[in-house]
């Protein structure tokens, strides 16, 4: 698309050059045939019409190329931004899921780990005993 705009600009420049040569040859022929004042008025009208047509064509071509380049740039930027955002969200969701799974697995392992009564009594405090009883009660409720 960018190459198309460049080629279009080159074609327009070449057409403009050919027009200039054609106008020059036409002017010389008219000057010989008609006379200076009539030729000058005719030249001015032809040049004005050609300039208007060429400017209009060039503006249209440049606007088309600019719009195409802007659309391409916007699409590229949107794709990159969405890709980055989706990647970040996916990584965050995976990390959260892994952390939750690890915490659940550790809690299950710790709750289900057998502890001797002697070991339990050696390290038990009142808050440990309450926590242990609550965990046992929750485990029993979950199983039933």
Largest sheet features: none
Number of helices: 4
Shape: rod-shaped
Helix content: over 70%
Any low-confidence stretches, pLDDT <50, length ≥5? none
- What is the number of beta strands? 0
Q: Quick check: average pLDDT? A: 78
Order of helices and strands: HHHH
Coarse structural class: mainly alpha
Cα-to-Cα separation, first versus last residue: 69 Å
Short description:
With 144 residues, this protein is mainly alpha-helical.
Description of the molecule:
- The protein has 144 residues and is mainly alpha-helical.
- Helix content is 93%, strand content 0%.
- It contains four helices and no strands.
- Helix 1 packs antiparallel against helix 2.
- It starts with a helix and ends with a helix.
What topology does this entry show?
Elements: H1 2-33, H2 36-112, H3 117-123, H4 126-143
What labels describe this entry?
mainly alpha, 144 residues, 93% helix
